[in-house]
TrEMBL record:
Keywords: Transferase. This is Glycosyltransferase family 2 protein. InterPro entries: Glyco_trans_2-like, Glycosyltransf_2, Nucleotide-diphossugar_trans. It comes from Paraburkholderia antibiotica. Pfam families: Glycos_transf_2 (PF00535). The keyword Transferase applies. Transmembrane segments: none annotated. GO terms for molecular function: transferase activity. It comes from the Bacteria.
Length: 348
């Protein structure tokens, strides 16, 4: 049960809302039940029309709720950026409006994150994430773990693991202030905020996984983003030609999104990247350029996709997608393969 204790570091919960009135009471109740004693909820609303801002403004629970921004339409990335920018805590968790948190979520993630800071200092970006239970709109369990029913990996931790896709939904994340100082403001053109945060920490810091499924991750027709394995929305009467056309358009959007996310990341950080991250970018570039490079990249990475699909995705990317502004000596393929499960990375 929540019990205000200012001796513990403040954890801000960044919540981006859009027409979320239906599920918000359950989320807020689960935040009230957190065992971590010093919390605030920072909300940015994306021009909701269902009474969401009014519900939040009238909320009078024990965890303070603070609305930031002007409530104008910003899209999912801009809305989360407003919420994150308004957070006062040294640690920040991201929340989706329709999920439900277990009482120990923040406490367990803080324990893991602070253990890294104790060993390596608090100037390095750190991200801790919990496991995720997939549920339907009524909170009935669909899978005890997102990672058991998708190609996403609990072991993703290097930049190369996040260049084709994200593994960690924002609602499972807790980050330290050093992460936000490195990641914000979000540059124009990024596809998803949580993917960007993961790429930043995988490049400049350390990621830690907490095995407990501390999050009930709702899958329903109103999701902005859902688990692909459980969120199929094809119409039953859709003809084969229409289905193929739709899937083709979806693949093109996905490839364009990868190209945009990686290009902006390279432009933002370029030569600042530590050696391991530069090696990963080089390997990705080679994977885009030739079949051999694509096979090598997929063999050493947790791509979040099946092997064949990941190879095809690399080859569909335009050969000129990347302009890193860095040159790096490429390690041998055998040494990169040995590093897949990886020794700790150097941070420089």
């Amino acid at each position: 049960m929540f019990d205000d204790d200012p001796s513990k570091p403040l954890v801000s919960i960044a919540l981006a809302t859009y027409n979320g009135r239906t599920y918000l009471p359950e989320l807020l109740a689960s935040l009230e039940a957190q065992s971590w004693p010093n919390l605030e909820v920072v909300v940015s609303d994306d021009a909701s029309s269902d009474g969401t801002p009014e519900l939040l403004a009238a909320y009078a629970g024990r965890v303070p709720v603070r609305l930031v921004g002007d409530g104008t339409r910003a899209g999912i990335v801009g809305n989360f950026e407003r919420a994150l920018a308004g957070c006062r805590g040294e640690y920040v968790a991201l929340a989706d409006q329709d999920d439900v948190w277990a009482p120990e979520k923040i406490t367990d993630l803080m324990r893991e994150l602070q253990s890294v800071e104790s060993a390596r200092g608090n100037a390095m970006p750190v991200l801790a994430f919990c496991d995720i239970e997939l549920v339907d709109s009524t909170l009935c369990c669909l899978s005890r773990s997102l990672f058991d029913v998708t190609a996403k990996s609990r072991g993703a931790g290097r930049l190369r693991d996040f260049l084709l896709s994200n593994h960690v939904p924002g609602c499972a994340m807790l980050v330290n202030r050093a992460t936000l100082e490195r990641a914000l403001p979000f540059p124009a053109g990024i596809v998803m905020h949580d993917w960007w945060l993961a790429m930043v920490v995988a490049s400049f810091g350390e990621m830690r996984h907490v095995a407990a499924p501390h999050l009930k991750y709702r899958q329903h027709d109103g999701n902005a983003v859902g688990a692909s394995a459980t969120n199929q929305r094809e119409a039953r009467d859709e003809c084969a030609a229409e289905a193929a056309q739709r899937r083709g358009a979806s693949r093109r959007r996905q490839i364009d999104g990868i190209a945009d996310q990686v290009r902006v990341f390279a432009q933002r950080f370029g030569a600042e990247l530590p050696a391991d991250a530069r090696d990963d970018m080089h390997a990705f570039s080679r994977g885009v350029a030739c079949w051999r490079g694509a096979f090598e990249f997929v063999m050493i990475s947790h791509t979040g996709e099946s092997f064949i699909r990941a190879v095809k995705m690399l080859r569909r990317l335009r050969a000129n997608v990347l302009s890193f502004g860095v040159e790096t000596r490429r390690p041998s393929f055998s040494s990169r393969l040995r590093q897949r499960r990886g020794a700790p990375r150097s941070i420089s």
